[in-house]
Amino acid sequence: MTLAIIPARPRAPAAPRGSGPRRAPGWLLAAGVLAQVALRLWLARTRTAPAASPDEAGYLIAARWLAGGPGADLSGNTFYQGGYPLLLAPVYLVTRDPAAVYAAVLVINALAGAALFPLGYAAARRFGLVRRAALPLAFGAALLPATTFFGAFALADAVLPAIVLAWLLALDRFVRSGRTSDAVLASAAASYAAAVHTRGAVLLAVHAVVLAVLALRPVRRRAALLAGGAALAGYAAGAMLNAHIRDALYPGGVRDLAGILESRLGTAAGQEWALSGAAGQVWYLIASTWGLAGVGLAAAAAALVRRRTPGAARVMAAVLLAATCGIAYASSAALPDEYRVGNFAYGRYLSCLALVYALAGAVVLLRSGARTAVRATAASVLVLEGAGLWVAVYAGDRLRTHEFIAFDFPEITFLTGDRTALHLREATLTAIALCGALLLLSRLDRTPLAAVGLTGVNLAAMAFVMAPSRDRPFSPLPGPAAGGVVADVSLDWEIKTRLMYPVWWTRIGRIDVRDGRPPASGVCTVLVPAGTSPETSWPAHPVGWRAHARPGWVAWHDPACGTAQ
């Protein structure tokens, strides 16, 4: 992006153009991408099965259904959109084995995450860094936990950062050059983001506003109108895909997040909830990037209000801030109160913007004079402290009494060393200390040293948050992978949801064992809640069926079912 954030400090003259091999950057980018893939797969090496329920199941089952496999009934859950499953569906054309599919998904995630290195390099160059400085910085920043952690799960968050950065880069080029191809590319990225997650709808809305404004200028009108048509067509295609999935996998409807959003917008209490949650997301964004995103936020705000900022830079600063505020506010307003600490401070929704802010912040520290760098760091600290105070005051004792889920706070558990509770003050102070350390490294005028420091912190954080991850495939059902499977209507929804993915050969149906009727022909397994003993969990079971106890539930299986898959 062409943010003219701060005046660059004087630097030594660059080496002559012919002094080095011209193809070195291409080789370095290729090698860096391979290294990024290897690092991401190594960090995710213990991940073999879904752990984030029902999110991962929602995406994986949608991909299976898109590839022609059995679906499931996900009614009542949040709607998991089809853009990400569309990327995963080809895996099911090769294998249906749950373990193999999951391993392939992690490879896809690693490739999408590794794309952040060349994309980040392009962004760093547009921020004003020279080639030899942009390469190591982009490599280290691409390994931020915000852009790496979710790649170890079958979640849309694994690919959103790359989509968002591609959108910003294409839109920035269009704003500067006016080329139709750049505008259409930006529209394609924005509309695809909208098909991947509801956060993408915010990005698409911001994109549409930019196109509308640029269409007022005759020199940009034709390109803006063509890009608008491309965005509309992409959105329509995504809407059709999502409607198709919704009808097939959510026959009883989805969780009404739009209704929650509307109810919050009209009340003072709802506005307090939404604004406080948005402040918590900003706090998390800054803390999870070791303070760099706060520097980037301050730089974007300064570029927006500074009179001498070039027009293209001001437009992109507005785009970035509008997308940030829109995602933080809308996602917080639509978030149901689940009595968990993550309701008040949450990083997942803004993680797709973490890299661009961290890069902007790092460039400010590296390219500015000492006084400006210190001021920018102080601004980051001020925003971090202010947002944290807002969260602490609004949430109060709920930060201690509500449920703390470590999955919601990967970077924060690293900052505090505690996976059992949120220590808001300790996390803030540690993030400030890390930001100060990065500031000191940047003052040494040795960009690789600062990049190595950033890379080291990121890898240490990822090693910490992934250490407890030893997930294994969910307990399989007894017998061969054949025959119908039905679940009793009283079986806990979480158990049913967790079984929908490993039961890959059929759609899990419904049965009410209390009516005494035997299962339909072709059904080999019936899932019921646990009783006082496995045998008493289904008193009216057919003769010859055997009970297989699992934690919280029992699988009744007909041993007469064939063994052929």
Give a verbal description of the structure.
- This protein has helices at 24-43, 55-66, 83-92, 98-114, 116-126, 131-141, 145-148, 160-177, 180-196, 199-214, 218-249, 257-265, 268-288, 292-305, 311-334, 354-367, 370-395, 398-401, 410-416, 424-443, 447-466, 493-500; strands at 484-488, 509-511, 523-529, 546-550, 553-557.
- The protein has 565 residues and is mainly α.
- The protein has two domains: 31-466, no CATH class; 484-557, no CATH class.
- The chain has a five-stranded mixed sheet with strand order 2-1-3-5-4, with no helix packed on it.
- Helix 6 packs parallel to helix 21 (447-466), helix 9 packs parallel to helix 11 (218-249) and helix 12 packs across helix 15.
- The chain is globular.
- The chain starts with 23 loop residues before the first helix and ends in an 8-residue tail after the last strand.
